[in-house]
Amino acid sequence: MQIEPGKLLAGIQSPDDMKELDAVQLVQLSKELRQYIIDIVSVYGGHFGASLGVVELTVALHHVFNTPVDQLIWDVGHQAYGHKILTGRRENFHTNRVYGGISGFPKRKESEYDAFGVGHSSTSISAALGMAEASYYKKEEDKHHIAVIGDGAMTGGMAFEAMNHAGVSNSNLLIILNDNCMSIDPNVGALRDYLTDITTSHTYNKLRDEAWKVLGKISKFGPNAQEIAANFESSVKSFLLKQSNLFESLNLRYFGPIDGHDVNHMVSVLNDLKKIKGPKILHVLTKKGKGYSLAEKDQTKWHAPGTFDKMTGEIFKKVYETPQPPKYQEVFGHTIVELAEQNDKIMGVTPAMPSGSSLNIMMKAMPDRSFDVGIAEQHAVTFSAGLATQGLVPFCNIYSTFMQRAYDQVIHDVAIQNLHVVFCLDRAGFAGADGPTHHGCYDIAYFRCIPNMVVSAPMNEKELRDLMYTAQLPENARPFSIRYPRGNGVMPEWKTPFEKIEIGKGRKIKDGDDLAYLTLGHVGNYAIEACERLASENISAAHYDMRFVKPLDEELLHEVFKNHKYVITVEDGSLQGGFGSALLEFMADHGYHSKVVRLGIPDEIIEHGSQLELQRECGFDPEGLYQSAKKILEPVSV
Ligand SMILES: Cc1ncc(C[n+]2csc(CCOP(=O)(O)OP(=O)(O)O)c2C)c(N)n1
Ligand SMILES: CC(=O)[C@@H](O)[C@H](O)COP(=O)(O)O
Ligand SMILES: [Mg+2]
Known about the structure:
- This protein has 638 residues and is of the alpha/beta class.
- 42% of the residues lie in helices and 14% in strands.
- Helix 7 (157-166) links the parallel strand 2 (145-150) and strand 3 (173-179).
- 1-deoxy-D-xylulose-5-phosphate binds next to loops.
- This is 1-deoxy-D-xylulose-5-phosphate synthase.
């Protein structure tokens, strides 16, 4: 489907084409850019509300700054669709997040305008500061470094670490705080309240106006800007501003808040700020979903709505005639509430993903026992450890990819003290369209080497429920991780009675003589398919659902290796150090010599696409499992 851009937008091949636009044209370009994002995302899907909210900011930045020489870094990058469209990728934009197409996030290898690869939050200030310090060192005095960070991302610890550093640097750094009061769900915490306060406080705004007067003078006096700013900074007003402003206290010159939907005002402010050297922050107020009223009203739903009818706002969902299996996240969300009703020690913790993890179900049902701690994975883990020291049983739900942030906390604060924290790692395995920054490839490998830790993965909804039930039992008071993928399970009738699973015990799903599949987690369902297909060709394959990588079911493994010359291991995770590796270690330790083929994610960066496309690429989709069996059984030619 061909989607045509507006007339002005059609003429923009790069930001160079925007430099001469006048005030009216900048407004028109913003309008066309917003419409183009709506047109494309409604048909092809992707992140939506965040990019709509920064349309004017994006236009103003590329109009004022000399990108790509000036370095523009988008935090997380889910709001950078306008940036991509204006920087030479409009004609490819319909391939956004599609297998083989452009990435949904800024990516250095995709464009020179993407100054830094992103996807995880709160990295932009550190990266921009690093670039700014490099420019300072290289005496590139006129170069600008701009980090655009949302109020949600600003709650992440890294943002504070970076501001702490920036405040004592001389480098030419501009932080733009894009404040829309939203994370994916409504933003949380004291910083959110603080930002609202400085936006509305009477006293503060009076002081701020003084600062703006100085900026006005800077525009007029041009070359004397430095001097005027310096005079202002030694004044009493500046002292008061510093006392009453968090960012000023950290030595960052603070400007704003300003209306982020007034493109021409932003152009004039950014032009002023260009003249002020050193680290500074501009607070911009925007509305997530701006310009598409449904997205403005329900900002969480329209964060990444999927495809929709742009005229009616109907979000397209596949219609099935029979009941479908639920998403794993939903099973988690309902099951934690059920368990918490039985066990008053259970608490729920999420770092800024209440909707994504479905912990929002518990947050609604039991608000005093569930916490959204903001984009703060490290804090979420150590906070859970703190709860556990007091005899509570926190379920700390973190996407596998974001758990990478909190690795030290898992070891130092949980495992070494052998605390009873249950880690639910959602989006384990390929995340799909979000791509390599979001794939949950590494958790098996990075958790498997941690003493005291139980590492498990359910093959279906029942196993997820039973593992959650098992994990909270007092006799299992130790760090316990359960990984499961993005998307649906396999059991429409998922609400099964709880059954305890013995820790470290797998199960034989099917006997067979010719080879054995050993699977971990949801991909076990692919082995069922492969076994059926092989059976129709008189090949008899056994199938074991191992459930645990740590501890391993050694009894079951002795059975496997005593009876099978050919073994195929399957995991939706990194082959390096993962489940297959664990089995090779077991074989080496016990002197087994079966031929083993390991299927999983190779030692490469796998890009974006649907989960199945990526699994196919790596050879562990159902077809890949079948073909591997055929291959392993092929007679060796001499
Ligand atoms: C480390 C990390 N944790 C969680 C996420 C998931 N995530 C992506 S966008 C987002 C909300 C960001 O809010 P904000 O920075 O205010 O941007 P907005 O969407 O409001 O424009 C979250 C939680 C992430 N990308 N990285
Ligand atoms: C940008 C970001 O990090 C999130 O919006 C992420 O895309 C959410 O992924 P899910 O859609 O799997 O919740
Ligand atoms: Mg926000």
